[in-house]
UniProtKB/TrEMBL annotation:
Magnesium as UniProt keyword: yes
Catalytic activity: adenylyl-molybdopterin + molybdate = Mo-molybdopterin + AMP + H(+)
Catalytic class of the enzyme: transferase
Annotated SMART domains: MoCF_biosynth
Alphabetized PROSITE patterns for the sequence: MOCF_BIOSYNTHESIS_2
Pathway assigned to this chain's UniProt record: Cofactor biosynthesis; molybdopterin biosynthesis
Domain MoaB/Mog: start-end pairs: 174-316
GO molecular-function terms, A-Z: metal ion binding; molybdopterin molybdotransferase activity
Source species: Halomonas qinghailakensis
Lineage: Bacteria, Pseudomonadati, Pseudomonadota, Gammaproteobacteria, Oceanospirillales
UniProt signal peptide: none
Gene Ontology cellular-component annotations: cytosol
EC code(s) of this entry: 2.10.1.1
Keywords: Magnesium, Metal-binding, Molybdenum, Molybdenum cofactor biosynthesis, Transferase
Name of the protein in its database record: Molybdopterin molybdenumtransferase
Amino acid sequence: MAELQPISAALEALLADVTPLGAERVPLDAAAGRVLTDAVNAQLDVPPFDNSAMDGYALRASDAGKWLPISQRIAAGSPAVPLAPGSCARIFTGGEIPDGADCVVMQERVTQHGDQVLMPDALPVGDNVRRQGRDVHQGELLLAAGERLEAAALGHLAGQGITQVSVRRRPRVALLSTGDEIVDPGTPLKPGQLYNSNRPMLKRLLENFGAEVVQRVSVPDDYAQTVKLLTQAASVADVVVSTGGVSVGEEDHVKAALESLGQLDMWKLAIRPGKPLALGRLPREDGSEARFVGLPGNPVSGFVGAWLFLRPLMGSLLGCSALSALPALMATANFNTSTGPRQHYMRVALRFSEEGVIADAFEDQNSGVLSSCISADALAVIDPHQQIEKGTPVRCLWLQR
C-alpha cells in the first residue's frame, strides 16, 4: 500500500516547473478578473488639478472674516481663471481651484447678501481642497505585475485614460467526469445513478480562480475510453481535471490510464476529505505537457480539493501571488473533534465578535454532504492525532477568490 503523502508534498509536486502563461492585450472593459503581465505606471496625476471637496466658496485664507464679492462661478468640468484679489469664487464639488485661492469654505458656513458673502473667521490654508496628485503622481507605480483586476484596480486604470491592458492568457481547463453512475441533470435517473453535482461546482470555482473551462466530458467506466478522452483533453487544455476514478476499485481507470500515457507525480494524500487524489502530467504531440489533477468523486472532496490545489495551480499559471495560498487566520473553535493519522479540513462558518473570531463547525463533516459547503466561510485545519475542544485556537483557511 502506497504511503499517504502530506499536502505540502502534493503542492510541491503540483507546482514544480509551472511557469506563467503568455500574454494577450484586451480592452479594459473586458479585463475584469484578469491578471496583469506588466507593471503599469501612472501617466497622469490623480487628481490632475487642485479641486474642491464640496460645494462652497474658494478664497484666500487671509480673507477670512471679511465680506467678499463673488468674482466667478466654477462648476465641475469648467475652467477657472485666477481669483481677483479681495474676492471669492462660487465653486462646486470637483471644480478647479483658481490660482490665488488656497481654501474652500462650505456653503452652510457663510452669510450671503446679494453678490457679497461674509466669510467665517480663521480658515486654515488647504481646507476642503483636494490637492493635485493626492492619490497618484505621474510616473509612480499604479499597479504591479501580477495584480488581479477587480473593481478598484479597473477604476484606477480608467482614471488614467487607459483603454487596453496586457494580461495573462486564461488557463484552459478540461473537466472530465468519470463513472457510469454519473448523469447530467435533465436526464431521468435510473437505479444506482446520481446527478453530476461536481461539474457545475468545479466549473464555477475554476472560473473564479481565473481559468477558462474549454471542455466538459463524461468518461465511462472503460479503460480504453479513459485513455482516449484523457489524450483528447490534454490536446486542448493546459490543465486536465477529473472527478472520480482515482481510487482502487475495479472500475477506477483514471490512475492506470494516466500512468500509461504520462506521469503520476502523487497519489493518495494524508488529508480528510480527499485522500484518493492523483497529480500528474499528460504529454502532448508538440512535446509539452498538460497538468493533471484527479479529484475524488465525493462532492465535498472535490470542493475542498479545488481550493487546496486548483486555486494555487491557477495562481502559478497566471503569475498571481494572491491566488497562490489561501489567507489564514486564527479562530476559536466552537466545536469538539479529534483526528487520526490524516490532516482534517473542516468546513466552518466564521463569526466576528468582540472576543475575536469564532469558528462554528458544521455538524455533519461527511464528504458527501455538499450542503455544508454553501455556507462555509473557511476550512479549519486540524493536524493529525489532535483532540480539539471548544475554546481551542484553530487555524482557518479563508475561502476567498
